[in-house]
Design goal:
Among the domains are: about 90 residues, Pdz3 Domain (Roll); about 190 residues, 2-enoyl-CoA Hydratase, Chain A, domain 1. The protein has 13 helices and 21 strands. Strands 1, 2, 14, 15, 16, 19 and 20 form a seven-stranded mixed sheet that branches. Strands 4, 5, 6, 7, 8 and 9 form a six-stranded antiparallel sheet that branches. By secondary structure, the chain is an alpha/beta fold.
C-alpha cells in the first residue's frame, strides 16, 4: 500500500451544483444548459431507481437507504482497479491507524487479485508471522468459510477483530499439495518500523518493515547511534515490506542520494508530472549500500529500491519485487466509511514504470526458505546468468573473515541466503576498494 500522507473530508454535493460552480461565462449558455440537463437525467434515473426499490421492493429490510447508497458506490468502485475500494467505517478507522504503527488484527498485509486474497507479507512479530504465514500464500478460507462466498471487503474486515479473539485461516502455498490451516489469536499489532544491528564492527544492518509516519527519522537515528563515520557498509532490508507513506519513502531514499529525482508521480492529468528531488544536506554517501528485496516488497519499498538502483547508489539483491506502481489517497465519507482511491502512478528516476513489473534486482538470489512468486524467471537458480551460490561461501569470503563474521549472527540470520549474499558482496566490494587504493599508491 502506498498512501499520500493526506486525509480529506469528502463533502457531499450534487453534480448539478458542481456544474454551476465550474461553469465559465465564456461558454455558450445553450451548450451549458444541454450538458446540465443531461446530468439531471442521469441523477433522475438514479434517484428514481432508488425510490422504486425503497418503496416497492417486496423485502424492505434489503433496500434500506444507507445500504443502497453503499452498494451503489461499491458497484462503481468494483469496476476500477484492485486498490481502489470502499471501506466500512470500522475498516476505515483501522486503516488510518496503520500508518501510525498500531492496529488490531493478526498482522497480514494482503492484495486482492481477481477475486483472490494473496498475502503480500506478514508483519514481523505478529500472530501471522509467528505462525509461519508467508508472502505469496493465497487465503482460501476464513473461519471455515470459503473466500469466494465472502464479499471481498468483508473478507479483509473479518481478519480484524478484538484482541484475544481467535481466527482460523486456510491457505494454499505453491509447492505444497495440501492446504495449510492456521489458528491465530488476534492482538493489538504494534509495528516497529525500523530494526537493526551491527553485523560486525563496520557493517550496519537495517530492516524497514513498513513506511510509517516516523520511518525516516527512525532510520536516521539508528545510523547516527552507530556513528556514520565508522560505518563502512550498510544492508537495507526491504523484503516483505508492503509499503506505506509516500513522503517517508522519499525521505528514506533522500538519506542516501545527494541530488536528482527520487520519484515522479502522474495523476489523471498526464501533462502534470510531480517530482520529488533529493537534497544534498544530510546525505550519507560515504559508504556502499546493499538493498534486499523480494516478491513481498511493494509500493513505497519499490520506490526506495528503484531510486537507489537508478542512481547507482546501491546494489539490489534478491528477487523481483511485487510490482505495485500506484498511489492511493484516503478519503473520509460523511457516514464514517471511507474511500481508498487511486490517484496517480509513480515512476523511478529513469522513468521506469513499476506497475505489474516490479523492480528486478541486480543480483538474483532466490530465498530457499520461502516460495517466491517469480514470473518469467528460470526454473533453477543455476540457469541464471551470473548466478551466485551463497550457501557455500567462497575462498574469498573465508579469507576476508566473512564466514567468521556470519557465524556470530543469530541463527536465523545465518540461514538467510539473501542476507549472507548481500553481506558477502558488500564486504568484497570493500576489499576491492582497498586493493585499488593500494595499486594507485
Amino acid at each position: 500500500m502506498l498512501l499520500r500522507p493526506l486525509l480529506l473530508s469528502a463533502l457531499v454535493c450534487s453534480s448539478v451544483l458542481q456544474n454551476l460552480a465550474l461553469a465559465s461565462p465564456k461558454k455558450d449558455p445553450a451548450a451549458d444548459a444541454d450538458q446540465t440537463t443531461a446530468r439531471y437525467k442521469n441523477l433522475e434515473t438514479l434517484a428514481r431507481g432508488l425510490f422504486y426499490l425503497e418503496t416497492m421492493y417486496v423485502d424492505p429490510d434489503k433496500v434500506k437507504e444507507n445500504d443502497m447508497v453503499q452498494h451503489a458506490l461499491k458497484g462503481i468502485v468494483d469496476h476500477l482497479d484492485p486498490h481502489t475500494m470502499l471501506m466500512p467505517a470500522k475498516a476505515f478507522e483501522q486503516i488510518t491507524t496503520e500508518t501510525q504503527g498500531k492496529f488490531g488484527g493478526v498482522g497480514i498485509i494482503v492484495s486482492q487479485e481477481r477475486g483472490k486474497i494473496i498475502v503480500v507479507s506478514p508483519i514481523e512479530d505478529t500472530p501471522a508471522h509467528r505462525a509461519g504465514v508467508k508472502a505469496g500464500d493465497e487465503i482460501i478460507e476464513i473461519d471455515d468459510q470459503a473466500v469466494g462466498k465472502i464479499k471481498t471487503n468483508d473478507a479483509v474486515d473479518r481478519m480484524r477483530g478484538s484482541p484475544g479473539s481467535v481466527m482460523k485461516l486456510t491457505i494454499i502455498r505453491k509447492g505444497i499439495n495440501e492446504p495449510l490451516k492456521f489458528k491465530l489469536v488476534r492482538e493489538i499489532v504494534k509495528v516497529k518500523s525500523v530494526r537493526g544491528m551491527m553485523l560486525e564492527d563496520t557493517t550496519l544492518y537495517a530492516r524497514i518493515s513498513s513506511f510509517q509516519e516516523k520511518t525516516a527519522d527512525e532510520l536516521e537515528a539508528m545510523i547516527q547511534k552507530n556513528n556514520p563515520s565508522q560505518i563502512k557498509g550498510m544492508i537495507l532490508d526491504l523484503r516483505d515490506n508492503p509499503g506505506g507513506l509516500l513522503d517517508q519513502a522519499v525521505a528514506v531514499a533522500d538519506i542516501f542520494i545527494e541530488s536528482g529525482i527520487i520519484v515522479s508521480t502522474v495523476g489523471r492529468d498526464k501533462d502534470k508530472v510531480e517530482r520529488e528531488f533529493a537534497r544534498k544536506r544530510g546525505t550519507l554517501a560515504t559508504f556502499p549500500v546493499v538493498v534486499l528485496i523480494n516478491g513481498g516488497s511493494a509500493s513505497a519499498s519499490e520506490i526506495v529500491a528503484g531510486a537507489l538502483q537508478d542512481h547507482e547508489r546501491a546494489l539490489l539483491v534478491g528477487t523481483t519485487s511485487f510490482g505495485k506502481g500506484s498511489v492511493q489517497t484516503l478519503l473520509s465519507l460523511p457516514d464514517g466509511s471511507g474511500l481508498k482511491l487511486t490517484v496517480a502512478r509513480y515512476y523511478t528516476p529513469k522513468d521506469r514504470s513499476i506497475q505489474a513489473r516490479g523492480i528486478r534486482p541486480d543480483i538474483i538470489v532466490s530465498d530457499k526458505n520461502s516460495v517466491e512468486r517469480e514470473s518469467g524467471e528460470a526454473k533453477k537458480e543455476s540457469d541464471l546468468k551470473g548466478h551466485i551460490e551463497s550457501a557455500d561461501l567462497s575462498d574469498l569470503a573465508t579469507n576476508q573473515g566473512i564466514t567468521k563474521a556470519i557465524k556470530n549472527w543469530p541463527e536465523t540470520m545465518q540461514k538467510d541466503v539473501q542476507l549472507t549474499t548481500g553481506f558477502t558482496y558488500l564486504k568484497s566490494y570493500a576489499m576491492f576498494q582497498r586493493r585499488n587504493m593500494h595499486d594507485r599508491q
